[in-house]
Amino acid sequence: MKRLIILLAAVMASVVLSYASADPARTDGTVTAWIGENNELFMICSDGVTRKLSAPMKDILRITDKDVIGLTQNNQLVSVRLDGGSYSVLSADASEEEIAGQEDKTFTLEDGKLTVNETVFSERAAAAATDGRILYWVNRSETGFVLMEKGLPGKEKENFGREPVFMTGMSVPEPVFMCVTGEALTLTAADRTITAISLTTGETKVFPASGQQTAGACMAGERLYRYTATETLPWELETIQNDAMRLMTVTPAPATMTPVPTATPTPAVTPVPTRTPVVTAVPTATPGDDNIHKGARGSTVRRIQQRLKELGYPVGNVDGDYGEQTQVAVNLFYDAIHTRERNYITPSMRTKLFSAGAPQYDPYMPLQKGDKGLSVLYMQTRLKQVGYDPGKLDGVYGTMTIQAVADFQKSVGYLPAPHEVRGEYASHDLLEKLFGPESTPTPTFIPGVPNEDLIKR
Questions:
Q1: Residues 63-96 pLDDT 10s
Q2: What is the Cα–Cα distance from 28 to 150, expressed in whole angstroms?
Q3: Among 105, 153, 295, 371, which is most buried by a count of CB atoms within 10 Å?
Q4: What is the C-alpha separation between 249 and 349, in angstroms, rounded?
């Protein structure tokens, strides 16, 4: 993968140009690999667990459908399986031809011409990067620099468990390097400031320059990694900024590492010790389906669970498993944004969930005639418990529920507003009285009342 890297000094020109394909981090949308602490290879693997290979790295060349290909500082070509289960040495002392043969050739960028296969994406590109599905680049214009994006041919409809964040037309500083990980697009500017754009929320954060030697940067595991270039290394870790940008990512600690095998003529394969992963798979989806369905498992589900928990919704364990309790929290959020409940998560729901104005969980959210969903079901259940018959517990604020609410209003001396019909509106204060000071709506799945019964397709 080719990037535009600024020349640090005239004496280093040939060195930098020789590493035009170098990259300190790569992603295929599911797996992210980067050069991290001690210049070692870190990976958020296909099972959601972070692992590392204890070998100082020179470059990450590409990610295939099976493994990550990297080049160590002692010039070994190594292959690490996407699940982190094993690795092997492809070449003990890689030649320039072997290295070139492993480089990512998704796109080329030469003299401003950005090309994918034989398709020209731009004639005035200053930098580019890809997450395996979308190609991002910066165009030079008369007024400045503009961020662009376009789906790679044949990859436009692929689902990586997250919705693309619209960036086209965003004004950015003059770039010297761009990098995409599973979390963010990171742009290193000519003035050495760093701009990171979350691929989950669209949030943008600018980090001041740490010096004039920064050649590139990436976001990984909520940390900002900055790199310099030397005469022998395209990427030398410069600084690490912890908790640099909260991107709603929950990642287990790195698994135990194992050194690279001693170089031998025959590639050696050695298992990498693992621990039980918290997440076991990418969220399930059918071709062309951008929804996340109940039963899905993976890091994207965990991010959604974590966000729901932050907003106060009763999501249960943040474990990456879209089960019954997560469905309860999802349904309650659908209620809060006044959208009919579904047993899956839509792209628009996720956009609202991660927006700055996402509603906090309110167990006494006002309800009215015609409402449907879990919040209504909790109210019906409580009305029945205290002696007011709402009819069938079906999550529908209908005729019998209206009568039950009206009877309860009379019992507590509630006077409807002039425009209200008694029983057709359950206010926040009324619901607090209904559930009482020591009781709140039960934020759990109710056996015998399947959520599917509340979904009116």
A1: 998 999 999 999 999 999 988 888 899 999 999 9
A2: 15
A3: 371
A4: 18
Mean pLDDT comparison of 3-12, 264-273, 277-286, 388-397, highest-scoring range = 388-397
Q: Starting at the edge strand that comes first in sequence, how are the strands of the sheet with 216-220 ordered?
A: 216-220, 223-228, 236-241
Q: Is the pLDDT higher at 246 or at 165?
A: 165
Residues 14 and 2: their CA atoms lie apart, in Å, by: 15
Q: How many CA atoms lie within 13 A of 369 on its CB side?
A: 12
Q: Phi, psi (5° rounding) for residue 44?
A: -90, 105
Least confident range of 157-171, 311-325, 328-342: 157-171
Among candidate residues 136, 138, 107, the one with its CA nearest the CA of residue 124: 138
Environment class of residue 18 by beta-carbon count within 10 Å: exposed (0-12), middle (13-18) or buried (19+)?
A: exposed
Question: Is the CB of residue 23 less than 8 Å from the CB of residue 1?
Answer: yes
Token pair in block for residue 367: 């309800």
pLDDT confidence bin for 114, thresholds 50/70/90: very high
Given a cut of 50, whether residue 119 has pLDDT beyond it is yes
Torsion angle of alpha carbons 401, 402, 406, 409, nearest 10°? 70
Instruction: Sort 238 into a burial class: Cβ within 10 Å, 0-12 / 13-18 / 19+.
Output: middle
pLDDT-based confidence at residue 444 (cuts at 50, 70, 90): low
Taking the complete model, does pTM exceed 0.70, yes or no?
Answer: no
Closest CA to 251 of 287, 221, 293: 221
Residue 119 burial (C-beta neighbours within 10 Å; 0-12, 13-18, 19+): exposed
Query: Residue 47 is encoded by which pair of tokens?
Result: 């099972």
Residue 71 CA, chain-centre distance (Å), reads: 27
Per-residue CA distances from 258 to 40, 52, 86, 89, 301 (Å): 11, 8, 10, 13, 30
